[in-house]
Design goal:
Layout: E1 3-6, E2 13-16, H1 24-43, H2 49-56, H3 60-68, E3 82-83, E4 90-91, H4 98-121, H5 123-138
Antiparallel strand pairs: 1-2, 3-4
Bound molecules: zinc ion (2 copies).
Length: about 140
């Protein structure tokens, strides 16, 4: 269901449905900025985020957001890097390094198991969740 929201960039009101909370005009602008950054880091893999920002006119926080979203890829040797939020080591995209994301995934699995165990005690509740999930996947209501 589309909702009316304020664009995160220009604060204009627009109909929001999916993806980042920005209006179409800003989305287009951001795509152009992304392209500039992508080409620049491809041609100058040794540039720092500040240099990329200066040359492309794209703010550094946006460059880091592109990285975080996994849209932008930088060379192994690039000074532009994200740091793992857990251990602080260099990562290429997302929020955590491989070691930490594996560990976090394991934590999630054990948390999931606990959930499943409680669901087993109450099979009716688990069934209801599954049915709702399926309905959602097919995008139609099967009552
Ligand atoms: Zn906007
Ligand atoms: Zn880590």
């Amino acid at each position: 269901m589309p909702e009316v929201k304020n664009c995160r960039r220009c604060r204009k009101i627009f109909m929001y449905s999916l993806g980042p909370q920005i209006c179409d005009a800003c989305k287009k602008l951001e795509d152009e900025e992304f392209e500039k950054v992508r080409l620049f880091v491809r041609d100058f893999p040794g540039a720092t985020a500040q240099e990329v920002s200066k040359e492309t006119g794209v703010p550094t926080h946006l460059i880091y957001r592109f990285l975080k979203e996994g849209r932008l890829e930088v060379a192994e040797s690039s000074p532009i890097a994200l740091l793992c939020e857990n251990c602080g080591s260099r990562i290429k995209s997302g929020r955590f390094c491989i070691t930490c994301s594996k560990r976090l995934a394991n934590d999630m699995i054990s948390a999931g198991k606990t959930l499943q165990e409680s669901a087993n005690k109450n099979p009716d509740a688990a069934y209801k969740t599954d049915a709702r999930g399926l309905r959602y996947l097919h995008g139609e209501r099967k009552e």
